[in-house]
Amino acid sequence: MTVCQGEVAVVDMAQALRGDAKSLVTTVPSAEIESIFAFSSFTAVSYRIDGEPAVGIIEFAKPRETGMPALERIHKLQFEPDYLTVQVDDQLDWRCPELQGTVTSFVLAPSPWSTRPENYQEPIVLPQSGTYVQLRVWAPSEGGEKIPITIAFNEAMVAAPRPLVLNVYGAYGVSFEPVYSVGTYSLLDRGVILAVAHVRGGGEKGREWHRSAQNLHKHKSVDDFVSVAQHLVDEGWTRRGAIVAQGVSAGGTVVGAALNRATGLFAAAVVSVPFVDPLTSMLDKSNPLSEVEIPEWGDPTNDRHAYEALRRLSPYESVNDRTEYPAVLATAARNDFRVPAGEVTKWVHALRRAGSEALLIVDMNSGHEGPMSDHANRLAFANQLAWTLSNLPSHLGRAAP
């Protein structure tokens, strides 16, 4: 049994050893199967459905015409609370009668869970997070797509609208999974809402979600991000000018491009090693990554349409003095060979010329993945947190009396 392109393939091993194996491929509607876990008494899968990670127990049936097991249904495990980042642990003993794993969220520290396959209908109850809540909402975007949004906040604070920090990545089919960080409470306890826009280009809703925002369609990641920010304003979670946009690397492309479009929507932006000049980078054939990145960003050297699309997307190329830019904190790394510090520097310079209070911090010792030591990581996080809070409206998000 194996997973290929999100489908489960069942193979008769006796036939395989004789060289005449036939596989029975089965799929689950609306599900993107990621991994399979076969044990002596049951089989489980990790998959994504409706933009969320999930774990399920497979129920098989044996059609008479083939005699081979066919996937009849997946029994999704239920967690309380829900909307969590769920993982299945590696288990070396295939005779193990239990499925085990960990769950986490913005407001739940990594917690172990386990269940037996016969108990799949019983919800797995996890530790409560007190007044801290994480939930899922959806925003409409262009083309009729619905964009998942993860939101975390402290119920003990005053009612919305509140200041909001909106994170994004949206590239390479990578899913932005909410995970626990002690630093999150520094925001939530000050009345700030933490949110993630799971835009097209990521992997949250499967491979098509990624493909729909590649190459000539990369702008859809930015469309979705701006739509999510506006939706959170329209629904009363926050207001215009009270949102800090955050992105790392390719997420910085989305944030930077959004700043060129959405005047007045964002209070500030925090971007780390942001890919803000993709056109120049993709035209530089001395950079070995320029060939590798063509499926994601296009080939501006040989395709005029790709050139124009990337020029319009590029945060650096689109900076203009007609747009009112918010304050920006950008960080770069001297030893970053993916996003050179010079690329970020010239973008910050362009923003300053356009009137933005843009600040650049260059780490002289680190690379694209950030500082090497825990101390340096915490210091960088503290600096970003302090800057973020100083650029949010002070009259929103006060503690409830």
What structural keywords apply?
401 residues; alpha/beta; eight-stranded mixed β-sheet; four-stranded antiparallel β-sheet; 30% strand; globular; disordered C terminus
Low-confidence segments, ≥5 residues, pLDDT <50? 1-5, 397-401
Q: Radius of gyration, rounded?
A: 23 Å
Largest sheet: 8 strands, mixed
Q: What class would the helix/strand composition place it in?
A: alpha/beta
| Helical content (DSSP H or I, runs of 4+) | 10-25%
N- to C-terminal distance: 58 Å
Classify the beta-strand content into a percent band. 25-35%
Order of strands in the sheet with most strands: 13-14-16-15-17-18-19-20
Molecular shape: globular
Q: What would your notes on this structure say?
A:
There is one protein chain. The protein is of the alpha/beta class and 401 residues long. Helix content is 24%, strand content 30%. It contains 11 helices and 20 strands. It has helices at residues 13-18, 184-188, 207-211, 219-234, 250-261, 278-283, 289-292, 294-297, 304-313, 341-353, 374-390; strands at 2-4, 7-11, 23-26, 31-38, 43-49, 52-61, 70-76, 79-80, 85-88, 99-105, 108-115, 124-125, 132-140, 146-154, 164-168, 193-197, 243-248, 268-272, 327-333, 358-363. Mean pLDDT is 87; it is low at 1-5 and 397-401.
Question: Briefly, what is this?
Answer:
The protein has eleven helices and 20 strands. The protein is an alpha/beta fold.
Spell out the blueprint of helices and strands.
Layout: E1 2-4, E2 7-11, H1 13-18, E3 23-26, E4 31-38, E5 43-49, E6 52-61, E7 70-76, E8 79-80, E9 85-88, E10 99-105, E11 108-115, E12 124-125, E13 132-140, E14 146-154, E15 164-168, H2 184-188, E16 193-197, H3 207-211, H4 219-234, E17 243-248, H5 250-261, E18 268-272, H6 278-283, H7 289-292, H8 294-297, H9 304-313, E19 327-333, H10 341-353, E20 358-363, H11 374-390
Parallel strand pairs: 8-12, 15-16, 15-17, 17-18, 18-19, 19-20
Antiparallel strand pairs: 1-2, 2-3, 4-5, 5-6, 6-7, 9-10, 10-11, 13-14, 14-16
